[in-house]
Amino acid sequence: MELVDALGCSHQAADLAATRIVSLVPSITELLCELGLTSLLVGRTGFCIHPRAAVAGIAKVGGTKDVNVEKIRKLKPTHVIVNIDENEKPTVDALAQFIPHVIVTHPLAPRDNLNLYRLLGGIFGAEESAERLCVAFERAWSALPPRPPASCKTVLYCIWKDPWMTVSRDTYIARMLELIGWRQWSAAEAIGDAARYPKFEWGNEVWGTIDAVLLSTEPYRFTQAHVAELQRELNRPVRLVDGEMLSWYGSRAIRGLHYLRALATTAQPTE
Predict the structure, then answer these.
(1) Distance in angstroms (rounded) separating the CA atoms of residues 96 and 87
(2) Which of 79, 108, 141 is the last residue of a domain?
(3) Which of 31, 141, 240, 262 is deepest in the core (most CB within 10 A)?
């Protein structure tokens, strides 16, 4: 298999005896641990919290947006793994000046996880573990209930408050929701904002086109209290959903598919 990342850059199998990895993507850190590569990780962000016991001894190098470049330099990594959405390009460019191998990720749909498993498994000598994850993913995928197009509901998936923010349809989250017939509201169509993570205000241009609101538990920590408050204000269906299950790619995506199945079989977003 050719080892090509999201920017089309080819990578070679690493010399594991000398490999030192910094991961700047929480879901990728979790995936590397699932692949059996914890011992190769020398740096992570403060948001890389899973699996908790495995990452506890790995040095923190800031956040996904506010990376401490000098801390990373001192760790002398051979590889850094970044994501187009989560990390700032100027930071990645700075890291590329002294880290030999920069691996760029950008899953846009659930099935992109299969290539992601094989890419990292191939680079870091974990091909068998990667294939086991692929099998588990396919099993979870096959267990999803069929969803006829006519049953689609339009939902507004909220990721932030003050200002209110959502996601575009061209995101991993939106494509996860589509698997169970929940179509993300389009800010591009409704208010002319084509950003991947647009801001919005409550009004008829929102409520006139959606069936329900989904409040995600991350990156903003929405809770049931927010659900109750918003329902009182808007008198419309509002539901709390697990943001990690719907937005984290990598190994978490397998659990995410099971979570989607449970959402689809227990209730519709408007219930």
Answers:
(1) 13
(2) 141
(3) 31
Q: What is the dihedral of CA 183, 170, 101, 135, to 10 degrees?
A: 30
Beta pairing, strands 153-160 & 165-166? antiparallel
What pLDDT digit, counting tens, does each position of 99-126 carry?
999 999 999 999 999 999 999 999 999 9
Q: Residue 53 is part of a domain; what is its CATH number?
A: 3.40.50.1980
Residues 6+ apart with CB under 8 A from 232: none
User: Are 128 and 154 in a shared domain?
Assistant: no
Asked whether the bond before 163 is cis by omega within 30 degrees of 0, the reply is yes
Strand spans (E) along the chain: 21-23, 41-44, 59-60, 79-83, 101-105, 153-160, 165-166, 182-184, 212-216, 238-241
**Shared-domain flag, residues 159 and 211:** yes
Rg (CA), the chain: 19
Q: What is the pTM of this model?
A: 0.94
Tokens in use for 74? 């001192």
* 12 domain-assigned: no
> What residue has token string 């100027």?
90
Taking only the tens place, the pLDDT of each residue in 175-185 is 999 999 999 99
Residue-number span of the structural domain to which 163 is assigned? 149-266
Question: What is the CB-side half-sphere exposure of residue 119 using CA atoms within 13 A?
Answer: 24
Cα 239 to chain centroid distance, Å, stands at 20
Cα separation, 120 vs 225, in Å, equals 40
Quick check: is 9 in a domain? no
Per DSSP, 4 falls in state: B
Number of independent structural domains in the chain: 2
Cα–Cα distance, 195 to 170 (Å, whole number): 10
